[in-house]
């Protein structure tokens, strides 16, 4: 079910990219419950409909990809909330994954991610409205420019440490085929575009603070990827505590972690 306060916050931050929603009740007898909403039509195509599936781009293709990545960087910090329960939930899932045999990811990687959790949820690290299902199918883009035209499906959104949706940057700098993961030739330039725009929009200054923020954000992005790819989904779409071993998904994770 959509949280009205979260949708209101999303509209305050992202404006017309977030559709208005009207609640019409729930489907009688549905188990699990099925809630009915109506929303206006948003222009644009799913990112998957315009994504390039080749490594080397021409100048126009690279320009439109830069526009997409630049839009991804415009997260806005919000007031810090009590996050202990959310931190514990992530800790339990990472610990559960570390116990898996054969291992999905190396224990050294998972230990590093677990150790970073207190810093991610600390008072001096940005807490932002996080979509929690920021997938390529939930992002609508202008077919000509690749600028973001709309973002749908806010049912899992909550305030979380910045970066938990950052696996989308990984997905925006390459593509997956049956042969595995392929980085775009301009991946370093796309990453630079993202961070330049993020520093500008967030007004974070100072080399040391920027380095710390980027390091934690990249760790958060890895955790977000694990939550989305390595666990079965609950009925509401959130990650359960049951590990899901899919060779395609594990291959994507290992590409993300450079294994």
Automatic annotation (TrEMBL):
Protein origin, superkingdom: Eukaryota
PANTHER family per record: AMINOGLYCOSIDE PHOSPHOTRANSFERASE DOMAIN-CONTAINING PROTEIN, AMINOGLYCOSIDE PHOSPHOTRANSFERASE-RELATED-RELATED
Occurrences of domain Aminoglycoside phosphotransferase (ranges): 91-170
Name of the molecule in the record: Aminoglycoside phosphotransferase domain-containing protein
A Pfam family reported for this protein in Swiss-Prot or TrEMBL: APH
């Amino acid at each position: 079910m959509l949280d009205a306060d979260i949708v209101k916050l999303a509209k305050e931050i992202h404006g017309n990219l977030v559709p208005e929603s009207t609640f019409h009740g729930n489907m009688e007898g549905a188990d699990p419950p099925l809630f009915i909403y109506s929303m206006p039509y948003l222009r644009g195509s799913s990112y998957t409909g315009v994504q390039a599936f080749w490594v080397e781009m021409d100048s126009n293709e690279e320009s439109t990809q830069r526009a997409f990545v630049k839009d991804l960087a415009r997260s806005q910090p919000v007031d810090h909330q009590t996050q202990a329960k959310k931190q514990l939930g992530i800790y339990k899932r990472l610990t559960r994954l570390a116990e898996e045999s054969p291992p999905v990811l190396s224990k050294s990687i998972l230990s590093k991610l677990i150790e970073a959790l207190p810093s991610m949820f600390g008072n001096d690290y940005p807490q932002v409205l996080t979509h929690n299902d920021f997938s390529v199918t939930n992002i609508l883009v202008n077919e000509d420019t690749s600028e973001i035209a709309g973002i749908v499906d806010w049912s899992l959104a909550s305030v979380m440490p910045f970066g938990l949706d950052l696996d989308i940057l990984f997905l925006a700098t390459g593509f997956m085929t049956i042969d595995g993961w392929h980085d775009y030739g301009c991946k370093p330039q796309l990453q630079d575009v993202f961070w330049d725009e993020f520093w500008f929009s967030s007004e974070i200054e100072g080399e040391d603070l920027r380095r710390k923020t980027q390091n934690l954000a990249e760790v958060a992005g890895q955790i977000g990827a694990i939550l989305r790819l390595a666990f079965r989904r609950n009925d509401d779409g959130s990650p359960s505590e049951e590990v899901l071993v899919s060779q395609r998904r594990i291959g994507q994770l290992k590409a993300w972690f450079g294994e």
